[in-house]
Amino acid sequence: MASVYSQSTMLEKTLRFIVVAGIFILPFIVLIVSTSLFFPYITGKNFTFRVVVEITVGAWIALACMNASYRPRVSALLAVFAAFVAAIALSDAFGVYPFKSFWSNFERMEGWVTLAHLFAYFTVVVSVMTPALWRRLFQMSLGVSAFVALYGLLQLFGYVALGWGGGGGLAARLDATLGNATYLAGYMLFHIFIAALLWGQSWMEVNKGRLALSLMYGSVIALDTFVLLFTGTRGAILGLVGGALLASVLLVLLARNSRNAWRAATGVVMAIVVLGGVFFLARDASWLRSIGFLDRLATISLEDSTTKARFMNWSMAWEGFKERPIFGWGQENYAAVFDKYYNPNMYAQEQWFDRVHNTIFDWLIVGGIVGLALYLALFVVALLSLWRARTESGGPVFPIIERSILTGLLAGYFFQNLFVFDNITSYILFVTVLAYIAHRSAGARPVRGGASRVSRMPLSAIIAVIAVLLVWAVAWGVNAKGLAQNRALLKAISQQENLDANLELLKQASDIGSFGTQEVREQFVQIASQIFGISQVPSDFKKQFIAEAVREMELQMEAMPFSARPAFFAGALLDSYGAHNEAKSYLERARSISPTKQTILLKLGINAFARGDVAEGLSLFKEAHELAPEFADARILYVASLIHAREDDLVEELLVPLIETGRAADPRIAAAYVERKRYDKIAALWEKVIAMRPESNVQVYFSLAAAQYASGNNTRAIEVLEEAKRAHPGSIEQIDVFIGQVRSGTARIE
C-alpha cells in the first residue's frame, strides 16, 4: 500500500512539474520568430502557445483528479471569463463566417480557439500558483522583457534590422521580436507596471536584498520605458503616462502611512507634470521634432490622417453594431462590416481593414452588446476584486501599493486599447494579471489529504493516460493541419526553381483545407499577377495559372459571400490579363458588396474603357470622384476620361485643385492628351505646375519639354531642360542627352 501511495505521490509531483513548467515557458514565446513559417512573427508564437497550453491543461486535468486542491478556485473573475467565452462562442456560431470566427487565419491567429486556450490557461494558473511561484513568474517575465528591450536597442543603434526592414536611428519605431511597434509597446507597458508591482512588494518586506531588488526593478522600468517610447506608439505612451499618474495619485491620497510609497508617488506626479510642461512648451522645437516618438506626440491632432481613420473606423463599426446589436458578427468579421459600410473618405488608408483599431468597438462588433458587456465586466470585476477583497481577519487582501499599481496597469492597458488591438503577447499578459488578481482575491486553499486523493495507483494511472491521450488528440486537431498548411504555403511562395512547382505546391497547400486557406488562395492571385509581365513564361502556363487562381477565388467567394475582397481580386487579375468581359462580372459582384469603395469603382471604370464603353466608364469615374472630391487619384482618372470624351470645359474646372497641389502633372492626364495629339494642352498645364512648384521631379520637366518639342517649340523645350538642370543637378547627364536629341530633331515622343 505504501508503495502505491509513493508512486501516486511521484506521479502527482511529475504532473505538477509539467503544469508549472508549462506556465513558466509562456513568457519566452515572445522571443519566437519562426522564419520557417508564413507570418513569422505571429504563427510561431501562437502555435507554441497553443501546444504548451494543451500539454499543461492535460497534465492539470490529471492532477486535479488526483488532488482536489488543484481544482479551480471559484471566483467572480472565473465566472465572468467563462461567461465571456461562452457568449463569444454563441456569437461565432451565428456570425457571418463561423469557420473563420472559430479558427481565424495565419495573419492574426486569434478566433475562438485562441480565446478558449486563454481561458484554459487562466483556469490552470488560478488553480496551481502560489505566492512564491507568482513572484518567480513575474521576475522571469521581467527578465525576458529586458532581453527584448535590449534587442530593441540593437535596432535603435542599427545593429539589427527592424522587423519591417527599416533602419535604426532616433526616428525609428522599434518592434524587436514582435514585428510590430504597437505590439511591442503593449508588451512593455505591462512589464513596466509588473516591475513597479514587484518593486513595491520588495519595499513592503524586510529583507537584506531589498536595495539590490530595487536597483534591478528600477533598471527594468527605465529600460522598458525607453524602448516603449521609441516604439512611437502614442496610445501606449499616453496609456503609460495616464496609468502611472492614476497609480501615483491613488498612492498620494491613500498611502500616507507609507512614507517611501508616498514620496515615490509624489515624485512621479511632479515628474509627469514638469516633463509634460516642458514638452508642451518645446513641442515645435527642431530638436524635439527630430526624435520620432516626440514628433509623433507633438503632431497628435484631430486632423491627423491616422486619427481621422480611427474615427471613421469607429463610425463604420457603429453602423455594423446597429445591424447586429445583441450578439454581433462573430470574431474575425469586421472586414464584412468594413466593406458594407465603407466610408469613402477612407480612400487614403488601407482598403481591407479587419480590425476597428479600438478594442471596445472590436468586441462590440464581435459579440454585440452582450460580448462587450462581458469583456468590460472583466475589468470591472478585476478592480472590485482588487479593492474589496478581504482576508479572514477583515483586512484588505491587496496592500494599497498593489491596488494602486494594478489599477494603473488596467487603466493604462484599457486606454491604449482604445487605439489598437490585442495580440497573443498582450492577451497572455492581460490574462496572467487577471489570474493573479483572481488567485489572490479567492484566497489560498490548503492541500487536502486522504479522501481527496485518488486512493489507488491504477486508477490514477488510467486518469493520467486518458488525459495525455486527450491532449494529443486536441493538439493534433488544433495544430497539425494548420501547421502543415502554413509550411506548405511558405514553401510554395519561396521556391524559385520553376513556376510549375509553385503551382503544384500551392494546390497542395490549398487542398490541406485548414484555417490558412484564404491566404493560400490569395497567393495564387499574387503569383499570377507577378508572372503576367514575365515574357519568358509561356502563355499557356499563364492561362493555366490564372484559371487556377480564379477558381480558388470562386471557392473563397462561396466561403465568404459577404466579402468584396475575393471577387475584387479575381476581377482585377482577369482585367490585367485582358479578359475584360469576364473581369466585369467579378468586379460588379465586389461593387454590390461594397458599393462606396472607390478602389472597386475605379477598377470598374478602367474595365469599362478597356471594353470600349466610354459612357459607363465616365459614369463610374464620376461616381468615384463625387464620393470624395478630395481623392486625387479618382479626380485624375475622371479628368483623363473626360479628356478622352472631349469634355474640355469640365476638364479645366476639375484641374484647378490638381494644379494647386502639383498633382496635375500626372502621366494618365498626359496620356489622354497625347491620344488626342493635344500637346499644347500638356504644355500649358505642365507650365502652370512648374511655375507653382519648381521643385517638381525631373520627369515633370521632361514631360513639359517633350510637349513643347512635339508642338514645334524647340526653343522653349531647351529652356525647360536648362531649368531642369538648375533644379536637378544630379540629372545633368540625362538632361544633356535630351537636349541633344531636341536640337538634332531625333527626340521620340510616346
Q: Which range best describes the helical content: under 10%, 10-25%, 25-40%, 40-55%, 55-70% or over 70%?
A: over 70%
Largest sheet: none
Beta-strand residue fraction: under 5%
Question: Overall 3D geometry?
Answer: globular
The stretches of 5 or more residues where confidence is low (pLDDT under 50) are 444-455
Compute the CA-based radius of gyration.
31 Å
Span from first to last CA?
97 Å
- The strand count comes to 0
Structure class: mainly alpha
Query: How many DSSP H or I helices?
Result: 32
Taking all residues together, what is the mean pLDDT?
90
Explain this structure to me?
The protein has 32 helices and no strands. Helix 3 (76-93) runs antiparallel to helix 5, helix 9 packs antiparallel against helix 10 and helix 23 (580-593) runs antiparallel to helix 24. Among the domains are: 150-300 and 396-411, no CATH class; 495-583; 597-676, Alpha Horseshoe (Serine Threonine Protein Phosphatase 5, Tetratricopeptide repeat); 685-750. With 750 residues, it is mainly α. Mean pLDDT is 90; it is low at 444-455. The N and C termini lie far apart (97 Å). The radius of gyration is 31 Å and the shape is globular. It is a multi-pass membrane protein. This is O-antigen ligase-related domain-containing protein. InterPro entries: O-antigen_ligase-rel_domated, TPR-like_helical_dom_sf, TPR_rpt, WaaL-like. It is found in: Membrane. Keywords: Membrane, Transmembrane, Transmembrane helix.
